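Quick check before the chapter quiz. The format below is the same one you will see on the exam, so make sure you can read both the input and the output lines.
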Amino acid sequence: MKMPKLTKVEAERRAALKRAPRPRLASTIVLYTGSRQDPKILMGQRSPRNDFMPSVYVFPGGRVDRSDSYAPFDGNLSPRTAHILEAAYAPRKARACVLAAIRETWEETGLMTGRPGTWTKNINDPSWDAFRQAGIMPDLSSIEVFGRAVTPPHRHKRYDTWFFIQKFEGDPKQIGDSGELSNVGWYSWDDITSLDMQRATTMMLGILKDYLKTEKAPADIFHSYMRRGTYIQERFPR
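Here is the expected output.
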């Protein structure tokens, strides 16, 4: 499996910065169909025009926006996921991390997950307004957190990304390409071995495999970041 390195554009943009940028809060969700033993995972390929990790395959996800803190939702986070996220953030921000992953999945793959529901307010966000018009309420109850990774400081953009997982029970054919992702599809483990991916995606796929093998999810998660030029891998909360 190839793991692309920094492009010339990425290297130039990082060199233009006086110091490493502060990581921005982000989230991504691994949706899968089939069994835990033989899943098919939703992934897509980033645009070659993107100035950050172009052309590689990723899970749908992105930055946590302010609107994610105000989006209505159905169901509560599991006690385990709430405990882990709230070791880092207040409850509203913890929920926003999960809601951002749901929103980004819709924006990047056209897949709208949740339950039928009536919104009582419009929060003036185009993506969340699409959920409101469709009568879909984001559902947090079946989503679990399984990892966290911070982009290393040698990149010109950095994210503190939380990784979630959920089994998708709807019609898998609802997906489609977007301006952010192409070749959106459900990929088996064998399919994934031929995809170009960055280190973090490859690493988190390995963590995901171990997670799917467990009968009971652990009370903490894998956490990767870089300190003084060395990659640190530990458990969170410690």
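If your answer matched, good. The chain has one domain: 8-236.
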